[in-house]
Amino acid sequence: MPWPIPSTRVRELIRQGAEIALNVPESWMADLDTVTLSGPARSRIADDPVLAEATRRTNRANLLTWAAANVRAPGEPVEAQVDDAQIAVARDMVRRGLDEAALDAYRAGQSVAWRYWMKITFALTRDPAELEELLDVTSQSISAFVDDVVTALATRMRSERAELTRGSQAEHREVIALLLEGAPITRERAESRLGYALERTHHAAVVWSEGPDPDVTTVDHVAEILARPAGGEPSLMVSAGSGTRWVWSQAAPDLAAVEAAADAAPDVRVALAGPAQGVTGFRRTHLDALTAQRMLARLGSRRRVAHYDAIALVALATEDSERAARFVSRTLGGLEHADDALRDAVLTYLRSQSNATRAAELLYTHRNTLLRRLERAEEALPRPLADDPIDVAVALDIVRWRGAGG
C-alpha cells in the first residue's frame, strides 16, 4: 500500500498536533503506563520493578520519537529508533523467561496513544474532510512505527534467546526456573547442574538497579558481597537481567557490608529473605525477596536495603496502593505528615507494648520528652491512640517505608 501524501493543510495540522504531543499532560502518560502494564499477559512485567520502570521509559521515548519526527517532517514515515535502553528491556524480558508475546504491551500502548491523538486532532479542526485525511495518514504512521519497533525488538529477543541457550548461566537459569515453578526435577540433578546444595539452609537476595543505564559493575560488586562465601559456605549467583542479580547463600549475609555497599551506590537496591531450609526454602526465600523488591518499588521507597522479615506486613497491607493510602490517611490524620521524630516516637512506643520507659531507652531520649511527643501525637490522631494501637502501628510502618518517609 503506497504511503499517503498529505495535503499542505493537513501537514500543518499534523505538525501542530505533534508539537502538542511533545508536551502531553502527565495524566495521559500515567494512563499509557497503566494500560501497558495491565492484564494477566503483562503481569510479570508489572510485578518486576526493573521491567516496569523500563517500560515506562520506553513509552515516553516512543511517544517523543514519533512526535518529534512529525514536527520535523509531518506525515512522513517515522523510522523506529530502538536504542540501547529498549534493547536492554528486550534482553531482560528474555532473561526473565518471557517471549515475544510480552511485546503486546506496545500494542496496548498504541491504542491509548491513538485515543489521545484523536483528542488532539479534534481540537485542531472539525472539518470532516481534513479530519478524514489527517486521521488516515496518522493512523498508518503510528501503526507502521509501532510495527517496526516491535519487529526490531522481537528480532533482538530471538537473538538474545539463542545466545542465552549457551553457557553455564543459561543452564543455571533453566534449573532455577524449574525449581521456582515446582517442576519435576530431582534434587540430585538440580544440585549437580547448579553446583549448589539444596538440602541446607538458604538466604536469598535480589540486587538490582532501576536506572536507564545500570552500572553492571556496581550491581555485581554488591551481589558478590552477598555471594561471598563465609566460612567456606557455598553460594549461587545468576544474572536475571542487565541490571539484576539473584543470589542464594548458605551463610547469613553481612548486613553491615551490604548496607555500606548499597549506600555507596545510589541506583542499587537490595531485597533480602531467609533463612529457610531445603528445596522449599530455596524457592520461598527467593519469592519473599521478590516481594520485598516489589514493595520498595510500589511505595517509591528510598530505602536501599529491605529484608522480607521487616516488611512482610507492610507488603501485604500495601498490595492495593490506593486502599493503603486511604487506610493511612484515615488512621493517622495529621500524624501522617508530622515530622519523622514524632512518628518514630509513637511507633517505638507501640512496639514497646506501650511501655514509655522502655521506648524512651530505645529512642535514647528522656521519658518526659517521649510523653510530650505522645501528647502531640494524640492531638494529631483522629482517635485516641489506645483505641486502635495496631492500626496506628501498621499505618506508621507504611509511612516509614514509603517515599521520603522511607
UniProtKB/TrEMBL annotation:
Domain of life: Bacteria
Species annotation: Tomitella fengzijianii
UniProt domain CdaR GGDEF-like: residue ranges: 187-295
Protein name: PucR family transcriptional regulator
Family: Belongs to the CdaR family.
Residue stretches making up the PucR C-terminal helix-turn-helix domain: 343-396
